[in-house]
Structure formats: C-alpha cells, structure tokens
Amino acid sequence: MATLVPPPSKRQKVAAAERAKEQQELYSIPSDLGSVRVQFFDQATGNATGPAVSVPVADANTKNLETLLNTLQGNDDDDRVPYRFTYQSDKGDQTIDILADLYHSLLQPGVKTTEDTISLFFTPQAVFRVKAVSRCAASIAGHGEAILATSFSPINSSTMVSGSGDSTARVWDCETGTPLHTLKGHTSWVLAVAYSPNGAMIATGSMDNSVRVWDAKKGVALGGPLKGHAKWITNLAWEPYHLQEPGCPRIASSSKDSTVRVWDLASKRIEHVLTGHKGSVTCVKWGGTSQIYTASHDKTIKIWNPKDGTLIQTLASHAHRVNHLALSTDFALRTAYHDHTGKVPSTDAEKVAAAKKRYEDAATVNKKIVERLVSASDDFTMYLWEPSSSNKPVARLLGHQKEVNHVTFSPDMTYIASAGFDNHVKLWNGRDGKFITTFRGHVGAVYQCSFSADSRLLVSASKDTTLKVWDVRTGKLSTDLPGHKDEVFAVDWSPDGQKVGSGGKDKAIRIWRN
Amino acid sequence: MPQNEYIERWQKQHGKRLDHDERMRKRTARESHKASYDAQNLRGLRAKLYQQKRHKEKIQMKKRIKEQEEKNVKSAAPDEPSKTPLPQYLLDRSQATNAKALSSAIKDKRAEKAAKFAVPLPKVKGISEEEMFKVINTGKKTHKKSWKRMITKPTFVGSDFTRRPVKYERFIRPMGLRYKKANVTHPELGVTVQLPILSVKKNPQNPLYTQLGVLTKGTIVEVNVSELGLVTTSGKVVWGKWAQITNVPENDGCVNAVLLV
Q1: Is this complex's ipTM strictly greater than 0.85?
Q2: How confident is the model at residue B233 (pLDDT cuts 50, 70, 90)?
Q3: 8 Å CB contact between A329 and A287
Q4: Into how many domains does chain A fold?
C-alpha cells in the first residue's frame, strides 16, 4: 500500500508562495518606472520616422511598439506590417535585438536608463507566415539511383527538379505528386540543378563534365551540352535577373578542374574562363552587384568581375578547404520578381524593374547596397565577409566541432544557419555573426539546411535519414520528419513556403507539406 | 627441416643441374603435347580424374583471359570516384568506414518476404544431449536420482544472474565457459568489432538451449551495436542488433559472429 504524503506545513506553504512570487516577478516589468522616449529609425535608409515618442515602460513590449510604429507610419488596419526592433548605440558599436520588451533588453541590463532617448531601428518582417511542414504529401519513385540535388521553381511550389545518380534530371509536379518530365542527355550523375530566376529554364551540371540547359515548361533540351570543363561540375549560378541583358542570360559553372566558366546561353559559348584557383572550386554565387563569388579547396574565396573575367578580390582566412558560400541576398536573387503575392509584372521591363527593386530592398542597409557573404569550411569555422568594404572578415564564427558542410542566410538576412558533420545545426546572427543557438537532435551528419520564406522556420536534412524542422525563434525542434529510408542528400524549401522537397540515397523524392 | 623437402635441401646444398633451365623450358614447351596425348589416351578412372582436373584448369584460364581483356579496354566515360552516386559535397572526402552504409541492395533484398528469414548459416549439425550435458552425481541424493547437469558448451549468462541454491540448481553453467563479448563482422563493410552480447535469441538445436543461453554454431544472438552508430528509418539510434555465430566457440575460445543486416 502506498504511503500517503502528509499535507505541507504552514511554513512550507509560505516558503513556496514566496518562491512563486519571486519567480513571477523575474519576468514582470515594474510598474513604477514611468515612461521612456523612443525614436524609431528605418534600418534600410537610416531615416527617423518623425519625432521621438514617449512610451510607458510597463507597456513597451514588441507587440505594442509594432502597433505604435504602424500608426506612426500611417499603415491601414488591413496592411499592418510586423516589425523587428534592434537597438544601436550612438557610436554604432553595440547592437541589441529587442526580443520581448525594452525593460529586459535595455533598461534592466543598464544599457540605457529611462532618462535617455532610445533609438530603435526597425526592419519589416515577412507579412505572411509559413506553416511548419508536418506530413509527407508524396513519396515519388522514378529515379533509378540516389538523388543528389533538388531545387524548387522560383515561380511557385508546384514544380521541382531533381538531379540523380541515374544520369537524368526529373521535373516533378508537386501538387499531384507525379513526374512531369525526364531530362535525359547526361551520361553520368547529375550533381547540380538550378532554375533560372524567371523559372523558364533549368540548368544541370554533371559528372560527365558538361552543363546542359533545358526548357522548364516543355522539358526539352535547349541545344546540346555546354562542353569545356575537364572535370565534373560542382555548382551552377545564374546571372541575377535584373542584370541579364534581355534575351541572353548567362550562367556560371564551377568545376573540379579548378576553373569557373561563364557561359552565354544565347550563343552557347564560353564567355569567360575564370582561372586562378589552385584547387577544386566547390561553390559559385553570382551577386546582385554583378560580381561572381567562388569558393575553393585551395582555402580561398575569390571575387570576379563577370564583364571582363578579371579577379577583383581574394579573401583568404580559412585554414582548410572552403565548402560552401551563402550570400545575404540569395533569396531575392533566386526568386527575382516572384514575390509572395504571386503577381507577375506583365512586360519584361517591368519584370526587370521589379526584380531590381526586390534586390535593392533586400540589400540596402543605411542607404548603401551591402552584400554580405558567409563561407563554411573544413577548418570547423565560418567567416562572415563584407567584400564591398574590406577584404578582412567581419566575424569568425566558431563553434562547430567538425567540418561545416552547408551554410545559408535567412531570406530576411537576420540569421545564418550552418549544418555540420558534428550532427548539429547552428544559428548565428546575420548582422555580426554572433552565436545564437544550436539545434540539437540529429544523430548523423547534417548535410543541408534551408530556411522558410518568412525566416521563422528551418529544415535540415541529415545522414540519419530524417528531416527536422526547427523553430528559429525558440531554438527548438518544431517537427521531426522521418520517412526516408536512407541518407537524405538534398533538401529545399519552396520559395513560397508551401512545400519542402527532399531526396537522398533511397531514390525516392519526398514532398512534405503542412 | 620438414621430412619431405629433400629436393629443396639438395638444391640449397649443391645448386641446380647445369641444364635445369633448359629442361624446364623444354618441358613447358611440350606441356600442350603431353596434355593432348593424355586427353586422347587415358582410359577409365584416370581419364575421369584427368578430365576433371583439365576442366578446372580451363575455367581458370578463361577467367584470366577475360581479366586481361577487360584491363585493356579504354573507356571513354570519365571515371566515377565511387560506385554509389554521391552528392558534390561528399565527392572529395575519404569516406569514413562507419557502419552506417547499409547498401540499398541489401535493403531491397530484405523487403522480399523470403529473404527476411534468410541467415548466413541456414543449417547446422545437431548436438546430442549426451554431448551437451554431463550428468553430475556428487552427493548421495544427487547420485541416486542423477538430476543435475553441467553444460559442456560455452554459454552466455546475463550480468544480473545469480546461481540458485545447490539444491535447486538443475543446470550448471561453468564460469570458465561463459562469454560476454562476440567478435561481430559487418558483412557489407567487412569490418569486425568486438561487441557485448545482450541476449541469446535462438539456438537452432533446441529451445531449451536458447533459454539456457548456450552458444553453439548457428545461434542467433543480440549484440549491442550502439558504438557503430546505426540508425533506424525514424532516426532513432539502434542499439540491439542480431548476429549469427559462425564458429564453434568451444574449439576457438572466442565467439565470432556475422551481423544480420
């Protein structure tokens, strides 16, 4: 028979009540602090929004500040924008994110007092919200070998392309979970796939040293293979839409033969061969200010001018091979004029203008176009660069205990996520590279990760056969997505946030949705 | 010197005949003639044995010719660095030999119903009870009824086992024949690791032996594979996996097993 615990004595009860009160007060704001003056600044332009306003400290949480700022901006009730607030000191040497309220972020640590005017910088957050994917909508067989790369169309989440070890790429209809086209032509593994920013073409790079370009709608080859590389293709990057000359888009391909080639797709010819790396080029990115960034096994990152194929800058700080690069504007460049509203401008000129505006909105900080770059390396570290201002890194991101394989910027550029072979995904501040949190949960090496379009969720693919969806704000696991029967090599979150597509060694494409 | 190596010894002492090489050359040159003569003229059992030998030699010959031919072919396709397709970021890495790589082929095979129950050693020789048990007859009562047995084969005994009182202990499992670890080979990777045994799942001889934890050839044991880092489809770490014993433990003094994947 179980022993009955005697009821607590009066002394115990009083002590418990005391403790509960203390704990509660830890998170409450004292009501006798009066008010504080707050001045809002736009993060992109640095302009103030009218005069400083006085806000009661007790009510100064992010929700209320958001409402206040919307009113100051004159936004209507139906198009209210969520904002994120950061405090920057006058000298600009200190930056603090306002997580919950002003009291706990600034006043309590003694950064500011209620006597001061607090300058808050605001950045608009995504007005839409992506729901965490939670179920497998389709598992589509078709590939005869492991799937090595996947990519969603920038237009919407209904089509996806995957490259496989059976030397084909396949286009999938994700709404019905059926194959649309099989892109046959390569003679060896398809290692890289990339949709053009307008979604009309697909480029594939292969183990057979060639690049092929396909019509995304019809699934037919546009001309023959682009030959020139001496070793296999590792990565592909399309010229950003707003930089393309009408009718002749260009593409850059990086290869194991330590060169990068820029191809003119109208004439199917090599425009430039960027030589200079001494090892396999692992990653290539084409920036929105018309610069090509390449990372290589020779420990350096090089920046090239695609107009004449000259080297602009060499960034050397890594101590081992550089595995991957991410640009802060990756998302804007990838989707060009396709935004969350789904409205497509009618004429080409409007499309270019829209793409340009989207890029500039994303890249402008303090009235300057700033493109930040983060590089992941085998030396277990990452570096954050701002190549336009200096060839020294902004920050060194330390923390991984094994090779860092993949790194990505969130679409709103506030976070960096890195996936490493030490089974962890780590989250960093996109502005200054400060460590934020570690997502623990995978039991095998993490190969890739991808942010949702609203930057609130992150999906990671791992060797342990699972995908995991993480909540960026809380740093916790949102959903675990088991289902793959073997290692997951590639994952992509569609730019409109609806679906996640993944593929791996078990040869089946899986589409996940909420 | 081994008894039969007198020729080698002689050659070491005195050297070879002066015309040794020439004789050997001639003999090999005439070998085909001799073979053809034997094939045509041998009769009876000797012919049979000769043909058998010749058949085996021909198989080896054909294999070698084929190997040579394949070596000479120059392929146009670029060399792929590994058999299984790998994504770009894994290509230039030395693959750590870790026990994860259960090949897809094996998995496909496992999906088939029949293969599910296939084990590396499907049949084993039976062991009689007389061989397995030794009758103990110490003491008056025990001697009278002869109910006590000692197991003469290696056993696995769980770590939490305590022996029963003498009066109730029917089967004695000798301390010297108890094993806690097995040398387990991963058939795909070809790596062998020493892993702790967790339990005996099935002894093909007799269900009683399963219960007693007797380790004989063909016994299925569960081993602790947590250090290999295997993962299930749902991402959980596997720690118990089955293996089949491939040797006769009492002859070797160790337990060798092969992992069932």
Answers
A1: no
A2: low
A3: yes
A4: 2
